[in-house]
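Friendly challenge for the regulars: who can give me the structure tokens for this chain first? No prize, just bragging rights.
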Amino acid sequence: MEIEVIESLSGFERLRAEWSELLQQSGANSIFLTWDWAHCWLRAQAARAAPVIVTVRCPQGKLLGIAPFSLRRYRAFSAYPIKVLRPLGDMESGFEYPDWIVRKDHEFAVYGAIAKHLRKASRAWDCIFIPNVSGWSGACARLSDAVDSARMTKISRRNEFSHVRLPDSYAKLMAGLKKNRRQNIAADARRFERMGARIVRCETQAQLDAWLPKLFHLNHRRWSAKGITGTFVRKPREADFYRQFSGIALDRGWLWLHVLELEGEVLAAQIGYVYNGRYLALQEGFEPEAGSGAGTALRARVFSDCIEAGLTEYDFLGDHTEHKARWGATPRAGRDLFIARRWSIGALAVRFSIWPTGRFLQPEQIQEAVPSQSLAAEGCTQPSTDAGGRC
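First reply, four minutes later:
Bragging rights claimed.
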């Protein structure tokens, strides 16, 4: 197998067609790992993150695997500089479920080859942090086995996610909820219907341009009523990412942005993406003066639209809360992985089971891309006698 490390935006952009084709042939096919997501994220982050993309090809040149990372600089214990590889696109975007993109018939060999190359090039990084890995898709097992096979030092911790398996009718969904919950949902829907409110899904760029700022505003209004700054105010680069990616997602048919309007005013908004037969709930907001019932009525409509569209899952993504459970959501497990270079501060943390909290790892406020001691400098070719299948 031939391994190349791409550390430039132009090199990443040249991968577009191959990346998209490989994703469809992999077990990691999610919207968060699309080329479009990574490209928009790099643009939103400007010069704050450098791409570090490990690619694996067979001798005939066919792309078999991609491990998409970005390199960020941190401080360990507020003092020591430390270079951290993180999944490409995972910060200030809503990213979940990282993985390496590998052809299904080459998984064993390619995952192992990537991990061994990372170990050989460990002078270019100090730690690898891969949070929010799904357990049910096999990603946890694939990544953990690869890291173990390369004899790298790692620790992991359990993480929890929340989802609803959708039945074939909205009535069945409601029948699975508690009686008082069903009654409250129906009452909220009737109340806004009597008031003349309407629920609309975004279908045009003009609607997106009008409603996305409303989502940002209502998200802040929702949380500020609890004394918390809204996501898009607290994280302006995340707002920039949404502005860039939402238009692309609309063109691709992935974007689902619903709003509840009353007399021309947007009272609630919810944004998510539909990909691979699943709805991914990202962000929402509502006008506090309209009450939480506005958000409830809107979410009920989104559930109804998901079922009508034949989707199989409503994914609440990270954290399983009582609020999500009231909609019939059930928890499922994943892991956060922390991998450290031997003879480093990170290795000490692993040895003594110190999880990399904010007190241990703090991001530097950098203004330019992180100059790296290239992973490619350790050698670009990794021979392998076990290709896991023919090219």
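The longest strand covers residues 63-76. Residues 167-311 form a domain with the Aminopeptidase fold (CATH 3.40.630.30). Your move, everyone else.
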